[in-house]
Design a protein that fits this description.
With about 450 residues, this protein is an alpha/beta fold. The chain contains 18 helices and 18 strands. It has a five-stranded mixed β-sheet with strand order 2-1-3-16-4. The protein has a four-stranded mixed β-sheet with strand order 9-12-8-13.
Length: about 450
């Protein structure tokens, strides 16, 4: 208890330091807008997040902030599911958006373009700008910062070591052909206990394929969202063998029944019980199986398989952002004080050491210990991890690629025709967005995805 109190006080001292580093404007407005200690009125701000892997820790930190801050600020924590993006859209349409928003590398660009985010430059001193790396199009746009980094996320194949041993499989698959074969063997070995070889959270195809087909494409040398940086065009043809392999796993009966309605937390719960042989996801899973769903099995994480066993790219090391302030908030000062607390070094250090993510903040990574969390060693950055450039997000008309691919996996059809249609619609949307000045897309014939890998390995 004494240690916890010291950590809390340290975090609040750091929060005060961060807040003090803001501009004079921030200091002048703090008494009226934040409900400071002299106002006598409690200022309630809402923080929305779609993260669940760290939910217990975040709840604890929010509770400590609410109890210990001297500015009479109370944070209302709202944890959403895979419907986070839709719920946020609705909140802005109904004029009831949150004050602080959890942003990710695949959402911040969209939220920025929709006008959901407020720049935070007025609060940032030169010291803070140097401490928290700026990453264009990941936490800054057009010279203004909208978020700060916390942790980076690696992507891996998570597998049930006990089921592998029972099936006589010596090592995780390294190719798509092996993935299909191993899924079949695991299903056969798990028949008596009701275990299946493979699963993904296909209730949300975008979330499922963003954890699986995306990273398989990336390590194979192709853009994980279908965008070709060499040609500045969308080309989904590289996904053909990946989607065909997933369909084969389902057709073989090697995929957990009911994946069409499976969300990520129910998937995790099933894996923790030993009902799933393997799936692909983020490094957050290490913390999940320690606190959220304590694993009843022996499990590990391995590099994801590539299409043919060759590594011609980089496994996406994701991150560069974490919290952002809503453009619609009327409590910006209070929101920043809460963000300052969340970005304190003591809290960020705990975040890594508890296994929720690998810090991207140099001053934190230098002092934070390697998490003592089961399975974390498989997620630590290796020679295949790297940060890909940001691809241009376009508002495509009709069925999105993830939904089209999942429909094919379930119902079949002409995959070549599906890919041709996707390429046509996505490139048409891209051309229109470039014409309207919404995005930039310039060919880079010298782009080599192999050069992205290994920059985070220790």
């Amino acid at each position: 208890m004494k240690k916890r109190l010291l950590i809390t006080l340290a975090a609040l001292v750091m929060a005060s330091s961060l807040a003090a580093c803001g501009s004079n404007k921030a200091e002048e407005n703090s008494g009226t807008e934040s409900g400071g200690s002299g106002s006598g009125e409690k200022t309630v701000i809402s923080y929305w997040t779609g993260d669940r892997h760290d939910s217990e820790f975040i709840k604890e930190m929010v509770d400590e902030f609410n109890a210990a801050n001297t500015d009479n600020i109370e944070v209302d924590l709202v944890i959403k599911g895979d419907d986070f993006d839709q719920a946020l859209d609705m909140s802005f349409q109904t004029s009831e958006p949150p004050d602080v928003i959890r942003v990710k590398e695949n959402t911040i660009q969209t939220f920025y373009k929709k006008g959901y985010l407020a720049p935070i430059d007025e609060f940032l001193s030169d010291e803070l700008k140097g401490k928290f790396p700026e990453m264009p199009n990941l936490n800054s746009f057009e010279g203004k910062r909208y978020s700060l980094p916390n942790y980076g996320t690696t992507m891996r194949l998570i597998y049930n070591k006990e089921l592998f041993a029972k099936a006589g499989v010596a090592a995780p698959p390294t190719t798509l052909a092996e993935l299909v074969d191993v899924a079949k063997k695991l299903t056969a070995a798990g028949k008596e206990s009701g275990a299946y070889g493979f699963a993904q959270n296909f209730k949300n195809p975008g979330s499922a394929l963003g954890r699986s087909s995306r990273v398989i494409a990336e390590v194979s040398g192709y853009g994980g969202f279908g965008y070709d940086f060499k040609t500045a065009q969308y080309d989904f043809s590289h996904f053909k063998p990946i989607i065909e392999a997933f369909k084969q796993i389902k057709d073989d009966g090697s995929m957990l029944p009911g994946v069409e309605s499976l969300d990520i937390d129910p998937l995790r719960a099933q894996f923790a019980e030993g009902k799933i042989g393997m799936y692909l996801s983020f490094s957050a899973e290490a913390g999940v199986y320690t606190s959220q769903f304590p694993a009843k099995i022996d499990w590990a994480a391995a590099p994801v398989p590539s299409i043919d066993g060759s590594f011609n790219g980089a496994s996406g090391f994701l991150g560069g952002q974490w919290l952002a302030i809503s453009s619609k908030t009327k409590k910006k000062e209070a929101a920043w004080k809460f963000m300052s607390y969340m970005y304190s070094e003591s809290l960020l250090q705990q975040y890594q050491e508890k296994g929720f993510g690998i810090s991207m903040v140099p001053s934190v990574s230098e002092v934070a210990a390697t998490p003592k969390v089961n399975g974390i060693e498989g997620f630590l950055p290796n020679q295949y991890d790297g940060v890909w450039p940001v691809y241009p997000v376009v508002a495509v008309q009709g069925t999105k690629s993830d939904d089209a691919f999942f429909k094919y996996m379930v119902s079949g059809g002409d995959l070549d025709a599906i890919i041709k249609d996707l390429n046509g619609r996505y490139n048409e949307a891209l051309a229109q967005a470039v014409k309207n000045g919404e995005v930039k897309a310039e060919p880079d014939p010298n782009f080599d995805p192999k050069t992205l890998a290994g920059k985070f390995a220790k």
